[in-house]
Amino acid sequence: MIPLETIREKLGTAEPWVESRGTHWLNPGTKSVRELAAAMNAAGARFVTITAYELPGKEGFRLEYHWDLEGRLLGFPFQIAGNSIESIWDLCEAADWIEREVHEGFVIDFTGRAYEPLMLRPGDKPGVNLREAPAQDEPASGQQGQKEVAK
Amino acid sequence: MSYKIPMGPYHPGLEEPYKLDMICEGETVKDAELNIGFNFRGIEHLAETRNYFQVIALMERVCGICSFIHTLTLCQSMEKLAGLEPPPRAKYIRVVMAELERLHSHVLWAGIASKLMGFKTMFMTCFALREKVMDVLQAISGNRVNYSMNCVGGVNRDVEDPLALVPLIDELEREMMRTVIPIFTTSSTARSRCAGIGILTHDKAISCAVVGPTARASGVPQDLRRDAPYAAYEEMQFEVPVEQAGDVRARLFVRALEIMESCRILRQALAKMPSGEISSAPEKLVFQSGTATSRVEAPRGEVLYSVSWKENSRNPARIHVRTPTYANMPAIRWMVRGARLADTPLIQASIDPCYSCTDR
Asked: Rounded to two decimals, what is the model's pTM?
C-alpha cells in the first residue's frame, strides 16, 4: 500500500493527514488544485468527485476534492473567497462532468474551460436551487426564496 | 462524408431519456457527444428541505433499481454524524438486502442486454428469474422496489428466519447455472454480438475513473466491498471477478460471475446472521456539526454520499450524491468510437446506465 505520507511530502504541505469519519483529510495549504491533481495522478489515485458548499455570508465556497487511493478515501478542502478556481479537467478527464455540475449549481467558475450548453439544465441559468439567493449588489445568478424548509 | 445521427432522448434500447449524438462515416461511428439532464429533479436541493426521516424516503427515490443502496449510503453517513454504530444483526441484514439488490439489478440488465442482442427468449428467462429475486426482497421488506429497510442506526425490519431463505437462494443459483450463465458465456449469439465491441481500454478506464463492473471488465480490480468494507462485508468470503478484454462480452462475464459471488455472500450472511437488535437508534437523534462521507459498492459501481449537518438542525445542510453511472457514462464516448452504428445501443446498455441516478 502506498503510504499517505509520500503524497504529503510530494505536495510539500506542513499539516499532517487527519482521519475523520472514514475520510483521510489533508489541507493542501498554498498548493493549487492543479498541483494536487498532478500529484494524485502520479500516485495512481482515482478521482471520485467534488463536493461544493456555500459558506455563510459572503465568505465564498468550500470545495472538497475526493480521490480514492487503494480503497482509502482522500479529501482535500479548498476554500475560495470569490467564485473561481482553476479547472483540472485537462489533467483529470474524470472531473469534467462534476465541474460542469458544480458550475450549474453554484455559479463557480472553473477557469480554463467552457460550460455551454449546460449539462443538467440546458436552456436554464446556473445558480438556481443550490446557491443561496445573491445579495442585492451582486449580479443576479440565482433565484430568491428557494430554501424552504419542510415542517 | 460524415453525418450526425442523434440517438435519443427517446431511446431505442433503454426506457430512460438521454441523447447520444454520433458523428458517423458510413456505418462507423467516429465520435459521439452525450447529452443528459432530461430528467433533472433537483434532489440534492430537495434534500436540504427535508428532515432526517423524510430525507431517507426522498433519497430512496434517486433510483428505482438500487434504492436500498442509496439509503444505505445515506444512513451510513448520517450514522457517522450521529455517532451511532448499527448492531451486528442489522449489518448482516444490510448485506443480504444489498446482495439481493445486486442480483436483481444484474439479472434485469442481463434481460435488457438479451433483448438488445435480439435474444428474446433469454430476455423472458431473465425476467422470470428476476421475479424470483424480487419475491425474496418482498418477503423480507414487504416491498418490491422501494424497500424502506434502512433507518439511521440499523434497519426497520428483521429477517425472522434467515435459514428459510437459503433454499430460495439455492434455487436461484441453480437456475442461473442452468440457463443464464452458460448461455451468456458459451452461446454463439452472445459471442457474435458482444465479443470485441465497445472496447474500453485499461488506460482509458483509469483516466475516465470508471467504477463497478465497467471498471472490472477493463482489468481494474476495484470493489469497495473488499477494498473498504462496510456493513458486514469484512466477515464475508468472496472473489472479485476481473476481466481484461474491456469489451461488452467482458462486462457480461463480470456480471455473470458476480451473480454467483452474490449467491455465495448471501448464503454466508444468512447462515451466520447473529441474533440481537436490529437498530441502535435512540428515540431522538442528535447530529453533530460537520461533514461525513460514505461509499458503497452498488450493482453499477461506487455510490458516494457527502452529508453536511448543522448541530440542532432537523434538516441536512447539504447532501451531495455521486452515482456510478455519472462516473461511467462519459466513457461511452470512447466505447462507441469505431463501432458499427447497429452495435451502439448494446454498447450503451453494457455499462448498465441509470439516467434516474445520473440526473438526480
From this structure: 0.89
Residue A23 lies in domain: 4-81
Q: What H or E segment, with its residue span, contains residue A66?
A: strand A61-69
- Residue ranges per domain, chain B? 2-359
pLDDT in tens, B120-165: 888 898 899 899 899 889 989 988 888 989 999 999 999 988 888 8
Inter-chain contacts counted by CB atoms under 8 A, chains A and B: 97
Residues in chain A closer than 8 A to B81 (CB atoms): 21
In a domain, A144, yes or no: no
Q: Residue A74: closest CA among chain B residues belongs to which residue?
A: B293
- Measure the CA angle with vertex B6, ends B4 and B12; round to 5°: 140
The yes/no answer on whether domain B2-359 falls in CATH 1.10.645.10 is yes
Whether residue A12 is contained in a domain is answered as yes
Cα–Cα nearest to B342, from B1, B3, B5, B2: B5
Q: How many angstroms separate the Cα of B123 from the Cα of each of A42, A136, B53?
A: 44, 58, 38
Which of B234, B211, B219 has the alpha carbon at shortest distance from B297?
Answer: B211
pLDDT of A140 reads 45
ipTM: 0.87
Comparing CB atoms, the residue among B35, B224, B318 nearest residue A53 is B318
Burial of B294 (0-12, 13-18, 19+ CB in 10 A): buried
Number of domains into which chain A is organized:
1
